[in-house]
């Protein structure tokens, strides 16, 4: 089966328990802080892996479509460019920029 413009869609993801964001957690509740940190890191890595999956599908489409890849893979290019901007690994600690 070749990867065409209409044959690809996002894979389903496992859903984890909802945890309050780190900014809303009581700093004295260590268990809640650790759960919130784990959630932030997990979500960040899920977003990064979504970007990697889109990149792999774009490569498949490029190879399968040949000279028509500009028209037939455009939606994947748009998804990938959006993923490069928005789906980065951030972690739970924010540093202040100068």
TrEMBL record:
Main location: mitochondrion
GO cellular component: mitochondrial inner membrane
Keywords associated with the record: Electron transport, Membrane, Mitochondrion, Mitochondrion inner membrane, Respiratory chain, Transport
InterPro entries: NDUFB10
Membrane topology note: Peripheral membrane protein
The keyword Thylakoid belongs to this UniProt entry's keyword annotation: no
PANTHER family on file: NADH DEHYDROGENASE [UBIQUINONE] 1 BETA SUBCOMPLEX SUBUNIT 10, NADH-UBIQUINONE OXIDOREDUCTASE PDSW SUBUNIT
Keyword RNA-binding included in the entry's annotation: no
Source domain of life: Eukaryota
Localization per record: Mitochondrion inner membrane
Protein name in the entry: NADH-ubiquinone oxidoreductase 12 kDa subunit
């Amino acid at each position: 089966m070749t990867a065409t413009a209409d044959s690809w869609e996002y894979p389903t993801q496992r859903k984890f328990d909802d945890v309050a964001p780190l900014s809303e957690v009581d700093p004295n509740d260590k268990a809640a802080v650790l759960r919130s940190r784990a959630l932030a890191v997990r979500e960040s890595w899920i977003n990064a892996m979504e970007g990697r999956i889109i990149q792999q599908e774009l490569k498949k489409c490029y190879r399968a479509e040949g000279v028509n890849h500009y028209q037939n893979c455009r939606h994947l290019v748009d998804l990938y460019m959006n993923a490069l901007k928005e789906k980065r690994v951030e972690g739970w600690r924010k540093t202040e920029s100068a």
